[in-house]
Known about the structure:
three-stranded antiparallel beta sheet; Glucose Permease (Domain IIA)
Amino acid sequence: MERFFAFGRPILAPADGTVVQVHDGEIDHVGRRSQLALVPYALGQPARLRRGVADIAGNHLVIALPHGGVLVALAHLRTGSIRVAIGEEVTAGQPVADCGNSGNSTQPHVHLQVMDSLDLSVAHGVPMAFRRFREWPRGVKQAQVKESGLPNEGAVVEPLPVPASDG
């Protein structure tokens, strides 16, 4: 797994809020890099779906934002890495877990979902944007600083501090 850049890297809270759900204990899968290695994974999909949300999201946590009914889920976290507990207040940029490969995941990554329900199986997505980040789009050598928006697919992203007057 260490061959994957993201595996084990700290995951930061994307916003201030209160932790309202934590699930840990799902295994990290072996990273799959070839089509042949995906066959057993694909054959196991029906059973994973029958077992429910924990098998899909893997190790995950949910943060309730102070904006009335909006929640953020962080999924596919590394086994045993969650650093927060239910009821704990978190601040944007605080390390909350490590990137893993648990749940419905073929390679280490983090699934971030802003939603309207604590029940991941019925939640609807809520529009979101990131603020103040440096992005290296795929195939571009020059980094770009964005004040607000969404990173491009496949980009490498680094958070930047928000100026004190904007925080």
